[in-house]
Amino acid sequence: MAVIVTRNLTKRFGNLTAVNKLNLEIEEGEIFGLLGPNGAGKTTTLSMLATLLPPSDGDAIVNGFDVRKHASQVRHSIGFVFQDPSSDDLLTGRENLYLHALMYGVNMRNVNEKMDSVLRLVDLLDKQHVRMKYYSGGMRRRLELARGLLHEPKILFLDEPTLGLDPQTREHLWSYIKKLSAEKKVTIIVTTHYMEEADLLCDRLAIIDHGRVVAMDTPARLKKQLGGDQVKLKIRKPNIAALRKLKYVKNIKRRGDMLTLTVNESALHLQEILKRVGPVESVESRSPTLNDVFLHYTGKEIRESGEEGGYFERMLHSGNR
Amino acid sequence: MGELNGLYALWYREFKVFLRERSRIISSLIQPIMWLVIFGTGLGASISLGGGLSGINYQAFIYPGILCMIVLFSSLFFGLYIIMDKRVDFLKEVLVAPLGRTTIFFGKVLGGATDGLIQVALLIALGAAFFSIPFTAYSLVMTIIVVMLLLISIVSLGLAIGALMSSPEGFGLITGFVIFPLFFLSGALFPTKSLPAWLGTFVALNPVSYAVDALRNVILGVSSTYGLAMDFAVLFGFALIMIIVGTWAFRRMKF
Ligand SMILES: Nc1ncnc2c1ncn2[C@@H]1O[C@H](COP(=O)(O)OP(=O)(O)OP(=O)(O)O)[C@@H](O)[C@H]1O
Ligand SMILES: [Mg+2]
After folding, report:
1. Atom number in ligand 1 closest to CA A36
2. Judgement on whether residues A78 and A181 belong to the same structural domain of the protein
3. Cα three-residue angle B157-B153-A87, rounded to 5 degrees
4. Which of A82, A264, A266, B195 fits B199 for a cystine, CB–CB 3.0-4.6 Å?
């Protein structure tokens, strides 16, 4: 059963169309990824699904409820971990959790055990009584994640959940997210810049660019659709005409003296390619990654490092009161 | 149940934050005390109040007005601070919660009113201890009621403005165009009985004047300009209107 359905969902800000006729169907228990460069419209999409922004056009049904007509029921079904800092700096981690429990209708009888268990999960039990202004960026992120899990929503939106986390915590979190979706059938919609994360975590992905879905499938199939392995050659004078005659060479891209080929079953054909193309300085062959998929559909490299998104800068300047 | 817990949550947050910011409590008391000590003594030394006020020194005379002043400043800025919640995503965390906007609004109002009441209580204690203000059980109860009505009104006004504003740049303007007129035109610093017509009209149009008038009557026994019944009617009406305006602003609030 689809728990999220959008039909031509559109959001315009003045002249800018941030989300353009989005059609999604997300199944119960699925981990669905939204992948796209800065400004692609990921956060805007999630905000509309969470009733924070009214759509300009089109429809969205979340857990069976129309986001326009039944905002309150929609909000009863969801949890949201925001891209930007969203806790009160003057309160401790535990106090922020307590606030959340009160606001999001957590059964208050066993609220203490619940808070303990999410704090343990993100490994913050020892910092729970520290005011959040003394948390590091990663610690704050972890606390906000724990908070999103506290009320056990049916649908969980994670907007760049692992931005700024160290690799260890990140993997920790992935396994928890997987467990959550497998055991509790929680549907998870996650946006991310990390290709590796999207690949490992998501059952299905939509690649978004300029508010449009340019590709949507499982990570494995997306990679397969590229039609083969990526072979990179460093070569001064390639014989491109000769390569074009080989039918297992699907795509040829040349940038300076770097030649990138998409080759079906490169292991079998590498010898032949090298023979025809001319004298090569170096060669590298690997199976396609989501990065290649992304590059193929958007023409852009997604920035892989942890610096983007302005998360830490915004945090530095945000000074809550 | 859910909405009640939500209301409690919002109040709890404001109250905790308030208690953690002791420096803010202290600094919010400094200005009123300076008015009482410097302005009250300085001006009081050279003027004597006429018309049935002859037994009252000027410092005591402006004390009810200074109580209203602390309400004005602390409550209006409390409401405006919702802009700071917008700058970080804390407001989103509240708005995505399954709570009605009205609940969120009332939670904030309760929080702000509590903060204000604590500051007023401190000023009452200081007044009784150092400025020989003769509080009685009756005047205390009446003072609290008047102050609560004013607190609710001004917090709501601040929240309404804050909900509609998108950046803190306008803060200075608000002080100039809202707080100062409300304060100076309230009769906080002068008797309102025998004013020139134009000024009398402005003062009578200002809801804060009725709070000052009522407080002066219940605390100092000065005869009321508008009548206590009128004072309370206006204050109730003002609070009601501000609550309606604030709720409306919250419903259409963007972030
Ligand atoms: N409230 C707003 N008013 C005007 N424009 C907006 C608003 N919110 C977003 N936009 C614009 O809409 C576009 C999509 O923004 P959005 O935040 O959804 O991108 P994103 O995919 O989440 O990017 P990032 O990876 O940087 O988080 C951007 O061009 C942004 O400038
Ligand atoms: Mg975003």
Report:
1. 21
2. yes
3. 60
4. B195
A272-295 pLDDT, tens digit each: 888 888 888 899 888 888 888 888
Question: Residues B99, B104, B110, B115: what is their CA dihedral angle, to the nearest 10 degrees?
Answer: 120
**Ligand 1 pocket member A13 (CB < 6 A):** yes
Provide DSSP, A115-152: HHHHHHHTT-GGGTTSBGGGS-HHHHHHHHHHHHHHT-
Burial track A105-139 (b if 16+ CB lie within 10 A, e otherwise) = bbeeeeeeebbeebbebbebeebbeebbeebebbb
- Mean pLDDT per 10-residue section of chain A, whose length is 321 residues: 92 93 93 91 95 94 94 92 90 96 92 93 92 90 90 92 83 83 89 87 92 91 83 87 85 84 85 87 86 78 42 41 38
Which residue, judged by its Cα, is nearest atom 17 of ligand 1?
A: A43
Residues 6+ apart with CB under 8 A from A89: A131, A132, A133, A319, A320, A321
Tokens of B102: 């009205």
- Partners of residue A98 in chain B, C-beta under 8 Å: 12
User: What pLDDT score was predicted for residue A218?
Assistant: 93
The encoded tokens of residue A318 equal 């945000």
Where in the sequence is the domain holding B128, given as residue range(s)?
2-251
- Tell me whether A316 touches chain B (CB under 8 Å): no
Can you give the residue range of the structural domain that contains A275? 227-287
Does the beta carbon of B84 lie under 8 angstroms from any beta carbon of chain A?
Answer: yes
- B contact test, residue of A52, A56, A96, A99 with most B CBs within 10 A: A99
Rounded average pLDDT per 10-residue block, chain B, 255 residues: 89 92 85 90 80 79 94 90 83 91 94 94 93 91 97 95 84 83 92 88 94 95 91 97 95 80
CATH number at residue A258: 3.30.70.920
Q: How far apart are CA A211 and CA A213, in angstroms?
A: 7
Q: How far is the CA of A24 from the centre of ligand 1 (A)?
A: 19
Q: Which two tokens stand for residue B221?
A: 């026994």
Q: Is B231 helix (H, G, I), strand (E, B) or coil?
A: helix
The model's pTM is: 0.84
